[in-house]
Amino acid sequence: MSSSSTTTTTTRLLMLKASDGVTFEVEEAVATKLGAINNMVEEEGSEDLICLPNVNGKFLGMVLEWCKKHANNNTNSDKGNDEVNKWWDKEFVMDLDQNTLYHLLMAADYLSGTELVDLLTEKVASMIRGKKVEEIRETFKIKSDFLPGQEEEIRKKNSWAFE
Amino acid sequence: MSFELKIKLKLPYSAKRRRSQTPQNDTVSHQTTPSYSAETVGGNDDLLNEILLRLPIKPLLKFKSVSKRFLSLISNPTFSRLRSPSPATSSGLFLRRPWSASVNPEFHFVDFDHPCRNRNPSSSSSSSKGAPFRSLNFVNERYGITVSQSCNGLLLCSSCRAPWSRKTYYVYNPTTKQYTTLPPLPSRGGGGGGGTLRAVNDVVLAFDPSKSPHYKVVCVVSWKKDGVLGDQYQIAVYSSEGGPWRLYGGLAPPSSDILFGLVRGVFWNGAVRWFSGFGTSIFFNVEEERLCEMPLALSVRDYFDDVNSGRVFKYFGESRDHLHKVEYVTEPGELATHCLNVFELEKDCARWVLKSKVDLVEISNVFPEFQDYRFYVLCVVRGELDEDSFLVLNIPGKVLRCDFKSNTFYTLFDIEGSDHVLDRVFFYPDEVYQYIESLACV
């Protein structure tokens, strides 16, 4: 009983090691904003070094930067902080180039950072909503696999969406 | 444990995937070549779903033609359910114009979020922007097409000026503009020897996307049988999953009090219900396809009260799976009362509960044209949150929105100044249909 209450009150530090060997020392409260880290902490408890072979240092750093802001803003929670978070999120995604955005999204998804995934998918959606079908194929490197005539049929069925 | 539950509530799509995933056992190697990051995201069904869920309808329908995978993701019933969680909230109303010169009836569209000064629907002015349709011409129908009912995103439509025996029924999704034509009703009655079709008394669309991506159409038909006095009644059911009409019952011949109420059925709480004025009401359980009687004399409209107590029945309808009725209460005198009482029916149909009151005196103080309290209640609309609910009121020349919580009202739609002289200043509540955005297949 007493031991569990001390672990929650002290600020525990975790070491996160990215695929390229870059390590980050972060407070547990920050890192556990990521579902995957939270699960590991809950399941394995004592482990202080966590290796993340699927994220490189650059993107892990950005993800943790986001976590840190949100963890800090949430500790003294009142209504104003929602606004601060929103404003900060907007800044965070504003100038991301496409490549960074998609890498970040994969990292966030891999680490189960649900809120961050929400934010980034929203950003992707806003970027692609006005695109043409051909541009979507270009962006996601997709080849049309419809049989001859099928694509025309689908387009015809939804012709008003192309107006 | 509790953490996973939290995710699950928020993001049902991703929860399944994330539950088992921890970084160590993830064997998919991270693609680090920069130019392929979008490709990797695009190749991940869960992420792609999350992105697509955040797109408006138009690009979504457009992107169906990107590839087979895009088509299958966007067409998936789970996707449409996640995109418009049920019960769905309506975002506007179609008001059938009392007069129109063309074969197809015309509709005004009232957008709850964007009040506008209306004009003639046939003119393509800026006000027509955002309206899902002005008139229905998805098929070339010589009798014209009109709407007869709206149900959770789908519209039941039918030939407009056709005699009942020549009516064709359609189910139309105004969001995706897809339609299907229902097969003709059986011409011979079932259950021992049949009889000839005499009348189609009521046709009701039943669609609950939270339970099934398929819909049913429930129809009350009556038959004339040789040598039998009086008509025989049956329920005919069409299912978008199971195909042609099937006949149910033995209603025949129903007692007069049931018969009286067998029009304008409403789909609510899993069943199509016909509320008769007095006596027994019946309902048809859509999932089990079972016809039941409601022993309780649950009156929607109390005819005797109407006359004696200054309470007048004004509206009856469904929104977000809540059933409402509205009564107009007046008390004469120096401090005259004019108010609308909005009731909701409890799920077990035990009683009507007073939900809200709308003071009409305040409205008449603002709008002089409303001095004589001539009005229609067009709709009671439930919001996602209870306190976002409101009532849509039609006073001469205007359609108002009256918010329950704040007790405020404002003009949604202005029909004064319409260039169409024949336009009346009122719409009929029976010709008002809710618009609910939906990706459901028809």
Strand order of the largest sheet of chain B: 3-23-22-21-20
Highest-level CATH class of chain A: Alpha Beta
Radius of gyration of chain A: 21 Å
Largest sheet of chain A: 3 strands, mixed
Largest sheet of chain B: 5 strands, mixed
Task: Write down the domain tally of chain A.
Answer: 1
Q: Name the quaternary structure.
A: heterodimer
Protein name (chain A): SKP1-like protein
Pathway (chain A): Protein modification; protein ubiquitination
Keywords (chain A): Kinase, Transferase, Ubl conjugation pathway
Domain SKP1 component dimerisation (chain A): 115-161
Task: Please give a structural write-up.
Chain A: InterPro entries: SKP1 (IPR016897), SKP1-like (IPR001232), SKP1-like_dim_sf (IPR036296), SKP1/BTB/POZ_sf (IPR011333), Skp1_comp_dimer (IPR016072), Skp1_comp_POZ (IPR016073). Chain A: GO terms for molecular function: kinase activity. The complex is a heterodimer of chains A (163) and B (442). Chain A is mainly alpha-helical and 163 residues long. Chain A contains 9 helices and 3 strands. Chain A has a 3-stranded mixed sheet. The longest helix of chain A has 19 residues. Chain A is elongated and about 65 Å long. In chain B, a hairpin with a 2-residue loop joins strand 12 and strand 13. Chain B contains 10 helices and 24 strands. Chain B is globular and about 75 Å long. Chain B is an alpha+beta fold. Chains A and B meet through helix 3, helix 6, helix 7, helix 8 and helix 9 of A and helix 1, helix 3, helix 4, helix 5 and helix 6 of B.
